[in-house]
């Protein structure tokens, strides 16, 4: 997943292949669900060799991350440069709440794609640049302290796709209830850290 900025330039034929592959993956997802999106099926549907798909994306997790890349860029732009409270200009606690609520909305809208992207290697969720950016952003909002990095990871943990899907679909928690739980975590941090 790209961090905000311009993607690297690519040759016209490579760009055309990338678009064809992503369109095929999106079509397979829409028609057959997450299980239908395999590297072999995507290659077949895109009319390219499976080696092309692997060279371009590396694995299924990275292919799925490419599908969600545009929405990710919009979300990053909003919390880095957008208006408060999500963007700069609001107190840290307000920004943290807006960020976690925005991340909950984004995760809810893309839960199946995120689950696919995180179902690869054990570190799949952490390999993409977006997780590191989220962690730095949350750590910045929390302020200095020996436990800042841990707390940032702890606040991001509820957004692991498998846990999020379990809470929303198996436990039946509404999105508002998930956000209320996040608010309770933030309130605890306000009390202990003086945000």
UniProtKB/TrEMBL annotation:
Residues 15-75 form the HTH tetR-type domain. Pfam families: TetR_N (PF00440). Residues 38-57 bind DNA. Keywords: DNA-binding. InterPro entries: Homeodomain-like_sf, HTH-type_TetR-like_transc_reg, HTH_TetR. GO terms for molecular function: DNA-binding transcription factor activity; transcription cis-regulatory region binding. It comes from the Bacteria. This is TetR/AcrR family transcriptional regulator. It comes from Actinomadura spongiicola.
